[in-house]
Structures are given as C-alpha cells and as structure tokens.
Write a structure and sequence with these properties.
Largest sheet: none
Number of helices: 4
Oligomer: single chain
Mean pLDDT: 80
Structural class: mainly alpha
Order of helices and strands: HHHH
Length: 66
Amino acid sequence: MNEKFTPHCFRHFFTTWLRRSGCPRSIIQELRGDARKEAIDIYDHITQAELKESYIKYIPLLNIKI
C-alpha cells in the first residue's frame, strides 16, 4: 500500500467488509459504537460490480413492462 493505513481507513474497510459479509446494520452500528444509524452510510462503499449485480437481480422483480 502506498498510503498509510490509519484507524480512519480501517473504519471504512471494517464497515464495508461486514456489510458485504451479510452482517445486519444494527450489529454493524453496535460494533462501531455509532449513535446515529446514518453514520454507517458514510463509511460503507458500494462498488460498480455490486451496483450492477443488485440492479440485475432486483429490477426484474418490479414486473415493469416496456
């Protein structure tokens, strides 16, 4: 790694890793010690691959006819 891996960087990694592993938001919030549940969204990162996969998975469930 070219950059220093700071506690702040770990917070981003930890949050994203737990979410990708399927950990419930309430558990992530408790482990991180967050008072506000919105704080998780600041530290969670969604990749383009995850976005595409979810889009393809859930959009057909809307039964939209074009």
